[in-house]
C-alpha cells in the first residue's frame, strides 16, 4: 500500500493553508496556499503536520555546511534551496555532470531527495533546477535557449507580475525575450527586466555565502573510509601539497587554511591554521595542522577531506639579496616566522601579539596590539618620555609618603610590601583627552603627575599621583601603573 500524501500546514491571517506538499499530494491536485479545509475535503487521507520554518532553516544551514565538501562557497536560497559556486572545483570529480550526480545521489541516500542544475548564473540555475529536466547543465553562455520554453514563474518575478503575465497571454520566458525591453519595463516594472537580465548574465546577482568565496580549494576522496591518526596525518600532508602546488604555480601565498574531514554520517570535523605572513610551504602548513588532528573524531570513518585557503596574496619567489645586511634581516625573519606561527596556532591569536605605539599621550590609550610580524608602524615611542615595559591592566592603589606639594615619593607600600625610594624622576604631567567626550568631568582632580622611581633593590616603577594638593577637600591618591624591565 503506497504511503498517504503529506502536506505541511501554516496559519496565515487566521486561516489554515498548505505551506508545502509532497509529490503524491501535488498529483492529487493540492497546491501551496490552498485552504487546509478544502484540501482535506478533496483528499480525505491527507496526512498533515505543522509547518516549522525555523526548523527548516536550521536544517538547511546544516545541509549548507555539509555541502562544503563540494564547494567552499555555498549560499542558502530561501527555505528550500542552495546555491553552490562550482567554478574551478568540478574537475575534482571529473566534470560538472559527475559532480552533480554525486551530490544528488548522496542527498537521496540521506533521505533528502533534491533536483539540481548547473548554469553560468544563479537565476538560470534556479530556473533549470525547478522547471527544466532534472540535472540539466547549460553550456557556457547557452542558458537562453534552455530558459525560453520554461514558464514565466522560473524568473522569480514578484507576485503581481507573475499573476498578470498569463492573463496577457505570456506564459513562457521566450515570449518575454521577444518583447522590447522598454515595453517590458514600462508594463511590468524594472524588477522584471532585472530578473531576466540576471538569468541571462547581463546583470550581476549578489549571493550571501556562508563563508567567503575562494577558488583556492582542493579535495581528496577515498575508496575506503579512513579513521587512524596516521592516515589522517598522511592525507593532511597530501592535500597541503596539492593546494600549495597551485598557489606556487600562480605566484601566491595564503595566511589562513581550513582543513575539513567529512565523515560518513555527514558531520564535518574542521581544523584551522594561520600564518603570520602569506606562505605556501606545504610541509610547514601540514606541521601546524597535524598537532590539532587529535581533536578530530572520525566516527565511522572519513570519506572526504577538503582544504581551502583564505587571505590569498601575491607572493614572489624567495631570493637571497646580494646585500649582506638585507640578507641577514631576511634570514632572521624567515627563522622567526615559523616560531611565531607555532606559538599562535598553539596558544591562540589573542595570546601572541606585539605592542605598538598609538598616537595618544594617555597611557591606557598609547598602546595597541598588533600581529607579531606586521610591518613596523610609522609612529615611534618618544625617547624623551620612556614608558614601562609592563603596563598594568589597571593602576593599583599604593600608600605613599612624600613631601608636599609636588615632591616624588620617599617611601611607598605596594601589595603589602614597603619600599624605600632611592632615585626618582618627574613629574610628567598628563591630563585627560577632554576632546574625545569620553569623560563626565575634567579639572584638577583628573590630572596625573607621573614619576619614575627606583627602590633600594634596583627595581623601577611608574607611579602617579591623581589630583593636586590644595584642590578643595579631595586629597590626591597615589597609584602604581607600570614596571620597568
- What does the main sheet amount to? 7 strands, antiparallel
Query: Into which percent range does the helicity of residues fall?
Result: 25-40%
The helix/strand class is alpha+beta
List the total number of helices.
13
Summed over residues and divided by their number, the pLDDT gives a mean of 86
Report what the structure shows:
The longest helix has 24 residues, at 324-347. The chain folds into four domains: 6-51, no CATH class; 57-200, no CATH class; 217-314, DNA polymerase, Y-family, little finger domain (Dna Ligase, domain 1, 2-Layer Sandwich), CATH 3.30.1490.100; 390-484, no CATH class. Helices cover 29% and strands 29% of the residues. The protein starts with 5 loop residues before the first strand and ends with a strand. Mean pLDDT is 86; it is low at 324-332. The chain contains 13 helices and 20 strands. It is of the alpha+beta class. The strands form six sheets. A seven-stranded antiparallel beta sheet has the order 14-20-19-18-17-16-15, with no helix packed on it.
Present the secondary structure layout.
Elements: E1 6-12, E2 15-21, H1 23-27, H2 36-42, E3 47-50, H3 53-66, E4 74-77, E5 81-84, H4 96-109, E6 117-118, H5 122-131, E7 136-137, H6 143-147, H7 159-167, H8 173-177, H9 181-188, H10 190-200, E8 217-226, H11 229-249, E9 252-263, E10 268-279, H12 282-289, E11 302-314, H13 324-347, E12 354-357, E13 367-370, E14 390-397, E15 399-402, E16 409-414, E17 417-430, E18 448-455, E19 460-466, E20 477-484
Parallel strand pairs: 1-3, 6-7
Antiparallel strand pairs: 1-2, 4-5, 8-11, 9-10, 9-11, 12-13, 14-20, 15-16, 16-17, 17-18, 18-19, 19-20
Amino acid at each position: 500500500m503506497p504511503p498517504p500524501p503529506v502536506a505541511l500546514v501554516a496559519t496565515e491571517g487566521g486561516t489554515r493553508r498548505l505551506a508545502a506538499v509532497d509529490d503524491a499530494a501535488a498529483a492529487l491536485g493540492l497546491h501551496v496556499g490552498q485552504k487546509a479545509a478544502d484540501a482535506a475535503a478533496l483528499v480525505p487521507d491527507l496526512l498533515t503536520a505543522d509547518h516549522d520554518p525555523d526548523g527548516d532553516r536550521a536544517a538547511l544551514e546544516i545541509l549548507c555546511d555539509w555541502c562544503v565538501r563540494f564547494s567552499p562557497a555555498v549560499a542558502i536560497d530561501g527555505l528550500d534551496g542552495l546555491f553552490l559556486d562550482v567554478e574551478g572545483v568540478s574537475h575534482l570529480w571529473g566534470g560538472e555532470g559527475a559532480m552533480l550526480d554525486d551530490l544528488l545521489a548522496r542527498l537521496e541516500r540521506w533521505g533528502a531527495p533534491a533536483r539540481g542544475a548547473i548554469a553560468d548564473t544563479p537565476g538560470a540555475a534556479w530556473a533549470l533546477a525547478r522547471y527544466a529536466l532534472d540535472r540539466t547543465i547549460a553550456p557556457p553562455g547557452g542558458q537562453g535557449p534552455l530558459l525560453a520554453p520554461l514558464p514565466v514563474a522560473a524568473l522569480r518575478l514578484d507576485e503581481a507580475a507573475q499573476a498578470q503575465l498569463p492573463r496577457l497571454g505570456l506564459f513562457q520566458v521566450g515570449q518575454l525575450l521577444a518583447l522590447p525591453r522598454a515595453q517590458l519595463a514600462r508594463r511590468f516594472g524594472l524588477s522584471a527586466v532585472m530578473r531576466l537580465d540576471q538569468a541571462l548574465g547581463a546583470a550581476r546577482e549578489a549571493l550571501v555565502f556562508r563563508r567567503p568565496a575562494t577558488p583556492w580549494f582542493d579535495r581528496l576522496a577515498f575508496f575506503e573510509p579512513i579513521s587512524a591518526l596516521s592516515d589522517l596525518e598522511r592525507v593532511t600532508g597530501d592535500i597541503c601539497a596539492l593546494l600549495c602546488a597551485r598557489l606556487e604555480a600562480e605566484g601566491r601565498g595564503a595566511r589562513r587554511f581550513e582543513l575539513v574531514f567529512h565523515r560518513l554520517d555527514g558531520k564535518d570535523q574542521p581544523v584551522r591554521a594561520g600564518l603570520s605572513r602569506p606562505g605556501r610551504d606545504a610541509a610547514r602548513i601540514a606541521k601546524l595542522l597535524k598537532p590539532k588532528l587529535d581533536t578530530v573524531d572520525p566516527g565511522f570513518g572519513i570519506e572526504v577531506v577538503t582544504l581551502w585557503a583564505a587571505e590569498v596574496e601575491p607572493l614572489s619567489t624567495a631570493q637571497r639579496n646580494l646585500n649582506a645586511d638585507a640578507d641577514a634581516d631576511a634570514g632572521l625573519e624567515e627563522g622567526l616566522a615559523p616560531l611565531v606561527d607555532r606559538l599562535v596556532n598553539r596558544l591562540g591569536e589573542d595570546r601572541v601579539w606585539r605592542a605598538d605605539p598609538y598616537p595618544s599621550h594617555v597611557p591606557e590609550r598609547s598602546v595597541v596590539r598588533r600581529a607579531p610580524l606586521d610591518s613596523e608602524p610609522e609612529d615611534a615611542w618618544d625617547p624623551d618620555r620612556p614608558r614601562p615595559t609592563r603596563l598594568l591592566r589597571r593602576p593599583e592603589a599604593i600608600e605613599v609618603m612624600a613631601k608636599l606639594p609636588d615632591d616624588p615619593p620617599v617611601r611607598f607600600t605596594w601589595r603589602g610590601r614597603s619600599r624605600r625610594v632611592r632615585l626618582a624622576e618627574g613629574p610628567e604631567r598628563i591630563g585627560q583627552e577632554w576632546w574625545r567626550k569620553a569623560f563626565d568631568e575634567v579639572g584638577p582632580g583628573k590630572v596625573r603627575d607621573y614619576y619614575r622611581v627606583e627602590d633600594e633593590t634596583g627595581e623601577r616603577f611608574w607611579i602617579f599621583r591623581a589630583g593636586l594638593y590644595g584642590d578643595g577637600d579631595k586629597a590626591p591618591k597615589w597609584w602604581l601603573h607600570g614596571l620597568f624591565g
